[in-house]
Amino acid sequence: MPYVEVSKVVNVPKSEVYEILKEMEKYPQFMKDLKSVKVLERHANTTLTQWETKIMGNTIKWVEKDIFDDENHHISYHQRSGDLHKFEGEWILKEEAGGTRVTLTVDFEIGVPMLAGLLNPVAKLMIKDNCENMLNALKLKTEQ
């Protein structure tokens, strides 16, 4: 199963980055690849969100459960349904000299075993590019 991990340092405190990340429905306002994020359910430390994004011209849709660990400034997510067979990961925030290292991970599976050898490398590159775009947009948003 392909795994993507991207990281970037932003020059703001971890708590500020975390508060922005928790408001996922606002991501499309500053992350150009995202078409929409809708909160379907909101509970004390979880949300159920519906996502639609463009990756290399292709629209991908899914519903995920997001788990918020406010004490550790950590978010994990797991796809409940959608276009991919598996899509899960986490937002990891670590304090670093003068700012915060933001790491986004994605563990995914396309779900077409016979084509996995052909599709996985291309999908991994596309998802990595998308994740890097998300982190670049987050950096611009937090450092305004």
Low-confidence stretches: none
Q: Roughly how many Å is the radius of gyration? A: 15 Å
Number of helices: 3
* CATH-defined topology: Alpha-D-Glucose-1,6-Bisphosphate, Chain A, domain 4
Secondary-structure element order, N to C: EHHEEEEEEH
The CATH C-level name is: Alpha Beta
Q: Roughly what percent helix?
A: 25-40%
Task: Find the CATH superfamily.
Answer: START domain
Strands ordered across the widest β-sheet: 1-7-6-5-4-3-2
How many domains make up the 3D coordinates?
Answer: 1
Structure, explained:
- The model has no long low-confidence stretch (mean pLDDT 91).
- This protein has a single domain (3-142), classed as 2-Layer Sandwich (Alpha-D-Glucose-1,6-Bisphosphate, Chain A, domain 4), CATH 3.30.530.20.
- It has 3 helices and 7 strands, in the order βααββββββα.
- The protein has a 7-stranded antiparallel β-sheet with strand order 1-7-6-5-4-3-2, covered by helices on one side.
- The longest helix is centred in the C-terminal third of the chain and has 27 residues, at 116-142.
- The protein starts with a strand and ends with a helix.
- The chain has 144 residues and is an alpha+beta fold.
